[in-house]
Amino acid sequence: MYKQLIQELGSARLVAVSKTQPNEAIMDLYAQGQRLFGENKVQEVVPKFEALPKDIEWHLIGHLQSNKVKYIASFVAMIHSVDSLKLLEEINRQAVKNRRVIDCLLQFKINDEETKFGLDIQEAFALLESLSYPNLQNIRLCGVMGMASFVEDEEQIRREFKSLKNIFDQLKARYFPNDPAFKEISMGMSDDYPIAVEEGSTLVRIGTLLFGARNYGNVG
Ligand SMILES: *Cc1c(COP(=O)(O)O)cnc(C)c1O
Q: Which atom from ligand 1 is nearest to the alpha carbon of 208?
């Protein structure tokens, strides 16, 4: 399953989404070579970081409150869910304290669902043109992230992924043309990753397909 999925993804990298999964399940994938894991809650990733091998790259993929950045700033490899200048400023502040640079993605709302977080492109322009952005020397923007709608309609999902790719291309051309670090398009989950890969995903976030359904007592 794991090896086959890696092959299917081609050059896109796999973020194994281990939220709600026990450490044993994470170690099973680790033993097969996986090092990149995604969690959506600060209170869950901190104990996992403490307990598990230090060569795991932890990606924070869920909504992040500014007041919780301090708990992950010393170790988080990438934050996928930056949706405001205020949050980016706080990530920078905590990165300075830890004397490191934290890789971040801007999260965009590409779906038609009410509850999802994320910027639109105008808000991203405003953030990148703000007076404060050039001062944020301890964050590095590496690209964009988005979630498609939870629908059956593949054409709608494809349209949404295309819109994220388009946002990436616009930001790249306008603000990061000579910055090789700005290269990531984080899109695709268990149900829609083949479409995401076709539409240019570079980071695919997969949980259920790897670990089985959440909250149902998994193989460990
Ligand atoms: C849970 C989660 C995923 C993985 O979802 P699956 O359907 O289990 O693959 C991907 N991205 C985010 C932001 C998530 O919260």
A: 8
pLDDT category, 1, cuts 50, 70, 90?
confident
CA distances from 62 to 24, 29, 118 (A): 22, 21, 11
Cα 194-207-218 angle, rounded to 5 deg? 135
CA of 121 to the centre of ligand 1 (A): 23
- Give 62 Cα–ligand 1 centroid separation in angstroms: 9
Which residues line the pocket of ligand 1, CB cutoff 6 A? 17, 19, 40, 61-62, 147, 189-191, 205-209
Relative orientation angle of helices 121-128 and 85-97, to the nearest 10 degrees: 40
Closest ligand 1 atom, residue 40 Cα: 15
Q: For position 220, what pLDDT does the model report?
A: 38
Query: Exposed/middle/buried for 171, CB within 10 Å: 0-12, 13-18, 19+?
Result: buried
Report the nearest-CA residue for atom 6 of ligand 1.
207
Q: What is the CA(184)–ligand 1 centre distance, in A?
A: 17
The percent of residues in the chain predicted with pLDDT above 70, rounded, is 97
pLDDT of amino acid 118: 96
pTM exceeds 0.90, yes or no: yes
Reading the block at residue 56, the tokens are 């795991």
pLDDT at 4 over 80: yes
Q: Which domains does the chain have, with CATH numbers?
A: 2-218 (3.20.20.10)
